[in-house]
Amino acid sequence: MSAVAGAAHAGGRWGPLRRAAARVAPRRGRLALSVALGAGAILAAVALLAVAGVLISRAALRPSTILSLTTLTVSIRALAISRALLRYFERLVSHDLALRMLADLRVRFFERLAPLVPEGLRGLRGGDVLSRFVADVDSLQDLYLRALGPPLIAAVVIVVVGVFLLFVLPPAAVVMVVALLLAAIVVPALAGAATAASNRHQAPARALLATELVDVVQGAPELAVYGREADWAARVAAADGQLLAIQRRDARVAGLSTGLGVLIAGAALVAVAALGVQATSSGALDGILLAAVVFIAIGSFEAVIPLPDAAQRLNACASAAARIEEVTEAPVVVADPPRPLPLPPGGSLVACEVTVRFADRETPALDQVSVRVAPGARVAIVGRSGAGKTTLARLLVRFRDPEAGAVEVGGLDVRAARQSDVRRSVRLAGQDAHLFTTTIRQNVRLANPQAGDAAILSALGRAGLSDWIAGLPDGLDTAVGEDGAEVSGGQRRRIALARAFVSDARFLVLDEPTAHVDPTGARELLRALGEDRDDQRGVLVISHTVAGLERFDEILVLDGGRVVERGGHAELLARGGAFAALAAVA
Amino acid sequence: MATRAEGSARGVDRRLLRSTRAARAPLAGSVLLGVLTAVLIVAQAVLLGRIVARSFLHGADVAALRGPLVALAAVIVGRSLCAAGFEASGRLGAGRVMSELRSNLTRHVLRERPSGLREQRTGDLVATAVQGVDALEAYFARYLPQVVLAVLVPLLILAYVIPHDLAAGLILLVTLPLIPLFMILIGLAARSRADERWQTLSRLSAHFLDVVRGLETLRANDRDGAQAQTLRDAGEAYRVQTMATLRIAFLSALVLELLAMLGVALVAATVGVQLADGHLAFSIGLAVLLLAPELYLPVRMVGQQFHASADGMAAAQTLFEVLDTPPSLTPCADPLPAPDPRTAPVALEHVSFAYAGRGAPVIEDVSLVLRPGELVALVGPSGEGKSTIAALLLRLLEPDAGIVSCGAVDLRAVDPQDWRRQLAWVPQRATIFAGTVAENIRLGEPRASDAQVAAAVRAAALDEVVAGLADGLDTRVGEGGRQLSAGEAQRVALARAFLRDASLLVLDEPTAHLDGASAEAVGAAIERLARGRTTLLIVHREALARRADRVLRLEGGRLHDVAATTGVGA
Questions:
Q1: For the segment A220-233, what is each residue's pLDDT rounded down to a tens digit?
Q2: CB of B37 closer than 8 Å to CB of B79
Q3: A415-435, pLDDT tens digit by residue?
Q4: What is the pLDDT of residue B7?
Q5: Using H for helix, E for strand and C for coil, what is the string for A49-86?
Q6: Cβ pair A441, A495 in contact under 8 A
Q7: Looking at the partner chain, which of A267, A430, A446 has a beta carbon nearest the beta carbon of B216?
Q8: 3-class state of residue B356 by DSSP
Q9: At residue A538, what are phi and psi to the nearest 5 degrees?
């Protein structure tokens, strides 16, 4: 009954895995080859022993000439060599298959993931969704290599052995097929169930023990000062004892399921031996083949040895596929229109009374906010963190659509254009821009693959990194490390800024360009942006600091999703309102 | 680098088996079961040889062979039980070993290193201490039995074969010295294979993670479409590269397989020739042939299990590394009674201290005296060793040079637990233990009455926090309960200090996470609390320092008397 329930449940459980497998290019030919080689390797070993059995049986009859034995001896050697070679090639083919599959999976899932970033992934729970996603995709490489390959190989071996024995000793064929199937299905199922049950039993005990250990490791100084070492040592010991008791029980279950596998193979051997003896005495079996039959009964079980592990991997793959689907099947919130219009070549970047509401919050993140960035203009949006500045920046590059109002470029609603056209015209230097594990040059050139070194150096110079680059022994070839680990937070911000400068976009949206930059540097950076009017692009700067904005054309103060003040620097300062308050903090 | 890791893994392996008491039982069990298994393997071959020989050569039927068949069944049952035993005792052994390591860890951090583990991520450490058992199971339940079998099975098989069939025995004996060679081959193959594959795959994986993490940036720069192609190319390039190394790496396994298979083939030929010449009984020839593959099997399996064992070793290694950190306290053999700071001055005399592995000392040649009943404020930039001075006074650390004393007694001569009984401490980052708020407050005084707790709560300005909790003082906090903010946790720590009638108070930034009004209230409470006790107040808030009798400044690892020079203090 539980098997039926399990099967019904399996439809849902295996669905994501099937869909994941369907997503990759079919490689049936390679899979078939790898299974054939794997089965061939096992069958060669079985055949070697069987032929050896025939050889010594013949020899025992003391033939007049040992010439008849020579053929057998030669075939034994040939089988020995085939076995080793088949195994070698099977390994190569299956690893090649796994690598191809993994590369395929990565590309396919990347293509699924891309349209969801960033807004489509909002609301996915769990810490590092993306790291888990990557780990899950990686774990699917086991699918063919370790999860599907072994059962397929076992199936081929079982069929071949069954058919062969059917001709030699039919009752033994039945015994062997039944025993092999039991070992192939029941033993892995039992092992899997035992593992799952033990995880279930142990999880609460492990969680409790982890809690106590964390408290002890972290709170050791306080426990020492307050003289409670013994009490907490006792608490850990109690939790430990509880876990150990459960582990003891689980160990016995695991032992029994392992023993069962050996018992099934052994029982088959005894049965086949008895059947063979009976058939020999009745004349149904040529006695010369008796030893061979016994060897087949022993050797065939090599095929089912990896199956418990395969079942476990299959389960892991199914869980990984389900988690991947959780991410990739999130609704796409921003999509290209069916018939995209080209963006008009001139005009301003305008947000027109845009309103954004997040599902998990009552008050709107942006409430009827309007801003216009004309070509060549310098506009700043300032405000405390949480005022809605970054949300506005994301609207401008169509990472998200407003619930009301519109974002327009040259008078065209960006929803009517292709996303890639919008982002080529309006370039966002995001607040948490990523640095890729490569050189400074490649990281900047990302924004404009055509840019030469001169353009890159000049963009880095505008971002205030000239001196730093000049001082680096490898210059532009300096590696930034994993996610920019080798550069400081301020340098990271400035490299992201250089990307915007090197791009050929008409509008630049710079989200917090001065975060992690020291106050003096921040002021200089903003001042340069305001004063340098050679660049005829419209620039919108988002900032929580206000020093250096003196020469900007317009400053908007955002608070609680609303524009509370707007105007020139001097004008706002004179008003003594929200902007003046921000300026005073700085 | 990988080579070094493997080298140390071997060391850990030995250490785990030798120094861990809990590991001895599964080791002994494995050896016992290994002997039994080896005997049963030989018995099985001998019985099968007899059964086949009597049936084939003498036409015996099942009834005539009932005895050997039943014996064979018994041998099978025995082998199953041995296999079950290996698995069960291995898993249990892994559980026991981890448990012992955890208990060592607890003792280490509570008794020998109460100053806390520096630069150690608690989360990872605890995860290893709890979940590491899974990795260790593979070691004890699979790897260790295989190693035992790889030694015992060939020995027993040779012991049977050599007296019965010298020629086949000699073939096996000649291949036997090859076995260590095989193992080295396998080890090398496994290692280089693992290294190469792991490195390439992890590089590829890191690249994918990098790209996925940077997807938003790629989208902002309209490069997501181009990146898919890059990803495809990288995958293909890595595949080609990996396959090139695998073609070589798998060769050693090929050689090994070939040697084992040809060994069997050779034995078959030898046995055949001897049988044809009539020099050998068929039953024995068959038994020898049955045993030939069994000789190589366990050795080959060791190679396969080699990887499974590595994770377990890594888990054990993580814990050993923590256990190897030197204790922060030297045990005192014949402790003196703890002097009372209420009547005797507490002093640091020319004290220096450096954290292991950090090079330069945090404090150097520092001297200070806390007179009974005095409230002394210690100010200075962060990272200058103020908290280190606190830890020295609390006897969580011992000075590298100089003396920490009370009265005329060097505190090293006093039992730390004795000394600490008279202290209360508010650390910079208070730990909230899993339990209720009340249990947390009672940390230093488990038997305090409800009224006393309530008073401490009020004194620490914790009452408004408690009022906001669903179950008041009975609210569960810490891991698995409500998480307290840094300011809330700090007030809990203050309440702990208020509850304890301590002679020496050490308050490390007690108002760091509080807003102005609460800080003022807590400051006043501290002043009340400090009355009649010796108090060291570590602060950077000048407001709080004003409440002190004296203000000392710690800068550049040295002390300056601020009261004398600037007059900020009194």
A1: 999 999 999 999 99
A2: yes
A3: 999 999 999 999 999 887 889
A4: 41
A5: HHHHHHHHHHHHCCCCCCHHHHHHHHHHHHHHHHHHHH
A6: no
A7: A430
A8: coil
A9: -80, 130
Tens digit of each residue's pLDDT (9 = 90 or more) over A354-390: 999 887 677 888 999 999 999 999 999 998 767 788 8
Is A248–B95 a contact, with Cβ atoms under 8 angstroms apart? yes
Name the band, by pLDDT with cuts 50, 70 and 90, for residue A5: very low
Consecutive H or E run containing B504: strand B504-508
Mind listing the pLDDT tens digit for each residue in A48-77? 999 999 999 999 988 877 777 889 999 999
Tell me whether residues B231 and A95 touch, CB distance under 8 A. Answer: no
d(CA B498, CA B452): 9
Q: Are B396 and B114 in contact (CB under 8 A)?
A: yes
Nearest CA in chain A to B200: A99
Provide the b/e sequence for A372-404 (b: ≥16 CB within 10 Å). Answer: ebeeebbbbbbbeeebbbbbbbbbbbbbbbbee
- Between CA B194 and CA B2 the distance in angstroms is 10
In A105-194 the beta strands, taken as DSSP E runs, fall at none
Helix, strand, coil shares, percent, chain A, to 5: 65, 10, 25
| Dihedral angle sign, alpha carbons of residues B390, B395, B397, B399 | positive
Q: Which of A145, A562, A450 is nearest to B221 (CA)?
A: A450
Q: Distance (Å, rounded) from C-alpha B105 to C-alpha B129?
A: 9
Diameter of chain B by CA atoms? 114
In this structure, how many other beta carbons lie within 10 angstroms of the beta carbon of residue B4? 8
What is the rounded CA–CA span in Å between residue A405 and residue B489?
A: 45
How many Å apart are CA B307 and CA B142, to the nearest integer?
11
d(Cα A487, Cα A481) in Å, to the nearest integer? 8
Phi, psi of B225 (to 5 degrees): -65, -45
Which chain B residues are closer than 8 Å to A261 by Cβ?
83
| A49:B113 CB<8 A | no
Nearest by CB to A221, which of B83, B427, B479? B427
Measured between alpha carbons, how far is B94 from B100 in angstroms, rounded to an integer? 10
Contact A145, A97 (CB under 8 A): yes
C-alpha B195/C-alpha B3 separation (Å) is 9
> Residue A273 and residue B44: Cα distance in Å, rounded?
12
Q: Whole-angstrom Cα distance, residue A86 to residue B411?
A: 73
Low-confidence ranges of chain B (pLDDT < 70): 1-10, 19-20, 117-121, 176-177, 179-180, 182-183, 185-202, 303-304, 307-308, 357-359, 382-383, 513, 515-517, 541-543, 562-570
Burial B389-410 (b: 16+ CB within 10 A, else e): bbbbbbbbbbbeebbbbbeebe
Query: By the 8 A CB rule, do A327 and A133 touch?
Result: yes
- In this prediction the ipTM stands at 0.82
Copy the structure tokens of residue A467: 């001196």
Distance from C-alpha of B127 to C-alpha of B98, rounded to nearest angstrom: 12
Contacts with B520 (C-beta within 8 Å, 6 or more apart), sequence order = B543
B194-B198-B203 Cα angle (round to 5):
160
For chain B, say whether A110 makes contact (Cβ under 8 Å).
yes
**Nearest by CB to B51, which of A212, A263, A277?**
A277
CB B400 within 8 A of CB B330: no
Angle at B508 between CA B107 and CA A223, to 5 degrees: 20
- Among candidate residues B452, B462, B569, B459, the one with its CA nearest the CA of residue B513: B462
CA distance linking residue A139 with residue A137, whole number of Å: 5
Pairing of strands A404-409, B558-561: unpaired
The token pair at B232 is 């495809």
Chain B residues inside the 8 Å CB shell of A138: 201, 205, 208
Q: How far is A173 from chain B (nearest CA, A)?
A: 18
- Interchain contact, A62 vs B86, CB within 8 Å: no
